[in-house]
Write a structure and sequence with these properties.
Belongs to the UPF0065 (bug) family. The protein is of the alpha/beta class and about 325 residues long. It contains eleven helices and ten strands. Helix 2 crosses helix 9, helix 2 packs antiparallel against helix 10 and helix 4 packs across helix 11.
């Protein structure tokens, strides 16, 4: 009797395994939601909408991906939706490093980094410091001197919230430049750009891709790029390092799914991203949209996420950013 029961259990397990494999083989059989934790028009939204149709193409079988914007709380709302979704491959989302790690480290998130299954990283977008076209500040040094003359008088706008990657960068910059600045969070790229354009704030940080068009149109001026070398997209803009401040920071954007998603579906999604990033049509579209591509496959992406979290935990112990 015992032997028969065990055989029955093994039969059920085998049937479930075969069923899971069959489901993965047919995947996707319905539309996939790709959640973006920020408002339309920002760098993450552009990256998501640019890759979605090419992932559809390389998933095959009439795959459909709908980009869903769920902004708020510095990304926490959208990322929570991804982490808590059913792990069946029909909800995936873009996650942003180091902003998502920072929420976890400071205890604000309703999720842990282990609640996500990394699929692939797509983008590394360096940060920039920008001012309006009529600003008296021509360089980072000019802004630093003004801040030293009147500590706290210079407001720096960001697209995030307290503890966002931009805020942490400002704190590091304050330390390196020995100045006191005022953080002005706007919660999105569009409103912080409008604040700079309207002269409501003297300066702002954002990602390079989000500043390129306005910079080229002469509406804003990039006075510092937070990368090791000048960007090919904006060769006239000096780095912070060139100006004597060792500030290197940026945002990585990649795709993740809820923990527990079947491994063969992860492999399908990863393969679709890999094929898209080798698709000449996509590469041309990304070039036109000036998306700074930086691909990491799921294993490397997981290692990168783990290191980013560990680095922020070390920073938090020494200098909490609340």
């Amino acid at each position: 009797m015992k032997r028969v029961f065990r055989a029955g259990v093994m039969g059920v397990v085998a049937a479930v395994a075969l069923s899971g494999s069959a489901l993965a083989a047919d995947y996707p059989t319905k539309p996939i939601e790709m959640i973006v934790a920020f408002a339309p028009g920002g760098g993450t939204d552009v990256a998501a909408r640019s890759i979605a149709s090419f992932m559809e193409k390389h998933l095959g079988g009439g795959a459909r991906i709908a980009v869903i914007n769920k902004p708020g709380a510095g990304g926490e709302i959208g990322w929570t939706a991804v982490a808590q979704a059913k792990p069946d491959g029909y909800t995936i989302g873009f996650i942003n490093v180091p902003a998502i790690n920072a929420l976890v480290v400071e205890g604000k998130a309703k999720f842990k980094m282990d609640d996500f299954q990394p699929i692939a990283n797509l983008v590394y977008d360096p940060g920039v410091l920008v001012v309006g076209k009529n600003s008296p500040y021509q360089s980072v040094k000019d802004l630093v001197e003004a801040a030293k003359a009147k500590p706290g008088s210079i407001a720096i706008g960001t697209s995030g919230a307290v503890g966002s990657s931009e805020h942490i960068t400002i704190l590091n910059f304050e330390r390196l430049a020995d100045v006191k600045l005022t953080h002005a969070p706007f919660g999105g790229t569009a409103p912080v750009r409008q604040a700079v354009l309207g002269g409501h704030i003297p300066a702002a940080t954002m990602n390079l891709s989000e500043a390129l068009q306005l910079s080229r149109e002469g509406e804003i001026r990039v006075i510092g790029v937070m990368s090791e070398e000048r960007s090919d997209y904006l060769k006239d803009a000096p780095t912070f390092r060139e100006q004597g401040y060792d500030v290197v920071a940026g945002s990585s954007r990649g795709i993740a799914a809820p923990k527990g998603i079947p491994a063969d579906i992860v492999a399908k999604l990863e393969a679709a991203v890999d094929k898209a990033l080798n698709d000449p049509e996509y590469l041309e579209a990304a070039k036109k949209a000036e998306i700074p591509l930086h691909y990491l496959a799921s294993g490397d992406y997981k290692a990168f996420l783990d290191k980013s979290t560990a680095d922020l935990e070390a920073t938090w112990k020494v200098s909490p950013w609340r």
